[in-house]
Amino acid sequence: MARRWLFYRFLIQPLKSHSTVSTRLLRDQAWKYGLYGKRAIDLGTGTGLVAAFLTSRYETVVATDINQRATQTAQLSRELLPDSAKSRMHVVTNDIAAGLRPGTFDFVCINSPWVPAHRAVGRIYSQGGETGFELPRRFILEGTELLAPGGTFIALCAELSFTDGSNPLRELLDDLEQNGFATFIEPTPAPHPFHTAANGTAETLPGLETARHVTAVVQRNP
């Protein structure tokens, strides 16, 4: 067991940039919104800790990540569970929701990388794309496709508002509402890495007016 813990620490160290704070936030939000059902999935699971946590509420929990070091760590998180919970958790190396059957999960959660590329140099686990929303957009679109009727999806990500009036997250959620989903945004207490135009810094995204870290909640109508 001591060797297993040492190996676990070796694997988890490079994943810490994906934020222990965000993992705790996702765990807390999963407990708040992941209330019932048979099947849950944690996309981009990282350490697998949130997926392991969900085994206390769901009969089957799937944890996916594209990074093999992450899935190795998630497998160790699974091994540390009691046998009764261990049998409910399944770890898969996968690119977000590729190959998974749509409409089959009662609860879907993500903690997608959301730091703009220029602020996450050398920290690939944090990079969410040029503005920080490109990768979360993929996770949200693919994750909500997995929802069964009445299912709930949550995503930790950044809400960005620009001086031209655009708000990529809100616009995406509005599109989902047009397709039969209910959505809302809940701010989190997490700090964010963005500089807004009001700061007058050279590091700001062009035209960025406001930024905040949020939980995006999407519910599929029964």
Helical fraction: 25-40%
- CATH T-level fold name: Rossmann fold
* Shape summary: globular
Give the low-confidence spans: 1-18, 196-202
Q: How far is the N terminus from the C terminus?
A: 45 Å
Biggest sheet strand line-up:
3-2-1-4-7-9-8
* Total E-strand runs: 9
Structurally, how many domains make up the residues?
A: 1
List the helices and strands in order: HHEHEHHEEEEHEHEE
The radius of gyration computed from the alpha-carbon positions, rounded to a whole number of angstroms, is 17 Å
Q: How many helical stretches?
A: 7
CATH architecture: 3-Layer(aba) Sandwich
**Residue share in β-strands:** 25-35%
Q: Name the CATH superfamily classification.
A: Vaccinia Virus protein VP39
Average pLDDT for all residues: 82
Helix-strand makeup class: alpha/beta
Q: Class in CATH?
A: Alpha Beta
Largest sheet: 7 strands, mixed
What can you tell me about this protein's structure?
The protein is globular, with a radius of gyration of 17 Å. It starts with a helix and ends with a strand. It has helices spanning 2-12, 20-33, 49-54, 68-79, 83-86, 134-145, 168-178; strands spanning 39-43, 60-65, 89-93, 105-111, 115-116, 127-129, 147-162, 181-187, 208-220. α3 links the parallel β1 and β2 (60-65). It has one domain: Vaccinia Virus protein VP39 (Rossmann fold, 3-Layer(aba) Sandwich), CATH 3.40.50. Helices cover 32% and strands 29% of the residues. A 7-stranded mixed sheet has the order 3-2-1-4-7-9-8, sandwiched between helices. With 222 residues, it is an alpha/beta fold. The chain has 7 helices and 9 strands, in the order ααβαβααββββαβαββ.
